[in-house]
Amino acid sequence: MTAFFKNSLLVLFVPTCLTVASCESNFKEVQKMGISEFTPSGDADSINLKYTDSGRITANLVSPKMLDYATVEFPFTEFPKGMHLTLYDKNGKQTYIDADYAVRYKITDMIDLQGHVKISNQNGEQLETEQLYYDQKNEWFFTEKKFKFTSPKGVSYGEGIDFSKDFKKVNSQKVSGLVQSSE
């Protein structure tokens, strides 16, 4: 009976080991299937896009590389090699934006600009920072990062600013610098 008992245990033990090994292998395959890969649905080099509204150019986007992730749950477009954007107001005045990296989130119409961000206009006003957000719907920029603002009136530095795309409305925080008064 002892030999029978040993053989029975061996018979029971071997299939269990095979089943566990098989399950582990299947589990690894299931894990691989569950990994979500961010693969762009679109990939473009040397782009030059013009945005229009009622036949009028409202923006011109130039970038050496664009990756479009339109099929993910929260779709976005990435500009990993930087971008240059020119915004046009209704009178044709231009605002220029440069960044080393940018991401545009399609659902919120927000653009996250990063790395040596510079925004300037034809009036000689310029803002420089490391990160800047642009709310396309409201045509509004903002950051909590340190910034340098240069205008014909002088140079100021601060940490935290928000402003309209034409610099007509500016709210800044923790500001220092020399600015000429018009009084």
TrEMBL record:
<dbReference type="GO" id="GO:0015221">
    <property type="term" value="F:lipopolysaccharide transmembrane transporter activity"/>
</dbReference>
<dbReference type="InterPro" id="IPR026265">
    <property type="entry name" value="LptC"/>
</dbReference>
<dbReference type="Pfam" id="PF06835">
    <property type="entry name" value="LptC"/>
</dbReference>
<dbReference type="InterPro" id="IPR010664">
    <property type="entry name" value="LipoPS_assembly_LptC-rel"/>
</dbReference>
<protein>
    <submittedName>
        <fullName>LPS export ABC transporter periplasmic protein LptC</fullName>
    </submittedName>
</protein>
<dbReference type="GO" id="GO:0005886">
    <property type="term" value="C:plasma membrane"/>
</dbReference>
